[in-house]
Design brief:
Structural class: mainly alpha
Shape: elongated
Largest sheet: none
Oligomer: single chain
Order of helices and strands: HHHHHH
Number of strands: 0
């Protein structure tokens, strides 16, 4: 992982989410391919470099989540969007009768 990412992540580090590598592992478990993960990291950490502060977004939410969780959720959303864009959502049926999109969604949710 790039030193740049880890430096930008420092304000969001927690005991359970100590570094960017933990984000990558989490997204891999979510079924997101590594190339998509790294594109999402580039976009999200590019936003942070440009001044986006997820701590500020957290202050406006009424959720019981840390700024770290807000950042992670943002990263996951971005990774899922990039992944969906990369595969398209043509209605091609697989052997189990699901479209590519339906199958992917079940994989992301951990149902397959």
């Amino acid at each position: 992982m790039g030193l740049k990412y880890n430096k930008l992540y420092e304000p969001y580090a927690t005991l359970t989410a100590p570094n960017v590598e933990s984000q990558v592992i989490w997204l891999i478990k979510e079924g997101i391919p590594k190339d998509i993960i790294f594109k999402a990291l580039d976009e999200v950490y590019g936003e942070i470099e440009q001044g986006q502060e997820f701590a500020e977004e957290y202050k406006t939410l009424t959720l019981v989540n840390s700024p770290s969780q807000v950042l992670w959720r943002h990263l996951r959303t971005k990774a899922r969007r990039l992944y969906m864009e990369s595969i398209g959502d043509e209605p091609v049926l697989s052997s189990n009768g699901l479209t590519k999109f339906q199958k992917l969604w079940k994989v992301i949710k951990g149902e397959l």
